[in-house]
Design brief:
Layout: H1 2-23, H2 29-68, H3 75-113, H4 116-122, H5 127-165, H6 170-175, H7 183-209, H8 214-244
Helix pairs in contact: 1-5, 2-3, 2-5, 3-5, 3-7, 3-8, 5-7, 7-8
């Protein structure tokens, strides 16, 4: 328990240094943009490829259930609400942790082992602001962008199954789609995934930045990044969902 609290405190101090470097404009803009582009390109196809079939399966199963009660018109709002509120944020953030967070932990860990971070400090440049902070910010921004792609992909997957494969009416599917969602849902999913991205960024970059023990230490940092990030943002997801939606449909 003491070790866990100590780790949380160190990550908190690391986060405070990242915020300070950002506020004081020490973070190189071009480095941030390069890392942001890298994360989006690396994670975009996996997010789309995973969320799209989930939308198809939800539509297929939901159609069978709603058909029992003659309520097929509720299919599209059900799919949209579930994907926007929960499915896409969680799946997109999981893939960002597995792809982007793990790669950043490995990169920073390799820099630490090769003493590149120490060399940066020796040159009078803050290695945290120059190497770690841009990656934290890139993950924070990339996560909601990738979640948006996931939301679109999942809804398209639901449409493909319901309308193209099962012959449901296009007009009914589209006209009823936003029956259970509104602007609050969109803002809620953006805020949630921004928080998730910040969590993934802080954990991955902290573990990579503070790697010890050679190549084995880099491997531990990568593994711990995925495990810790997913555990923490899943717990945060419950709190944020309760705050934004309260478990009740509008």
């Amino acid at each position: 328990m003491t070790a866990t609290l100590e780790l949380l405190g160190r990550i908190g101090l690391f986060g405070a240094r990242v915020v300070w470097a950002t506020v004081t404009l020490q973070v190189p803009l071009q480095t941030f943009l390069d890392q942001l582009r890298t994360v989006i390109l690396r994670c975009m196809l996996p997010v789309i490829a995973v969320v799209f079939p989930f939308g198809m399966v939800m539509s297929l199963q939901g159609l069978e259930i709603f058909a029992l009660y003659g309520s097929q018109r509720l299919l599209s709002p059900f799919v949209a609400a579930a994907i926007i509120r929960e499915l896409s944020p969680v799946m997109a953030s999981t893939l960002v942790a597995a792809q982007g967070g793990a790669s950043f932990a490995a990169e920073l860990g390799a820099m630490r082992i090769k003493e590149e971070l120490d060399a940066t400090d020796v040159m009078g440049v803050d290695s945290l602001a120059f190497h770690a902070a841009p990656r934290v910010l890139a993950l924070t921004v990339a996560c909601p962008v990738l979640n948006l792609m996931g939301c679109i992909s999942g809804i398209v997957g639901g449409y493909f199954t319901a309308v193209i494969m099962e012959g449901e009416a296009h007009g009914v599917f589209m006209s009823e789609m936003w029956g259970l969602t509104g602007p609050a849902d969109v803002w809620g999913t953006v805020i949630k995934t921004t928080v998730f991205g910040a969590i993934i960024g802080l954990i991955s970059c902290y573990l990579g930045f503070n790697t010890r023990g050679g190549a084995a230490g880099v491997g531990r940092a990568v593994n711990d990044t995925v495990v810790y990030s997913i555990l923490v943002f899943i717990a945060a997801n419950y709190l944020l969902t309760s705050a934004f939606f309260g478990g009740a449909m509008p």
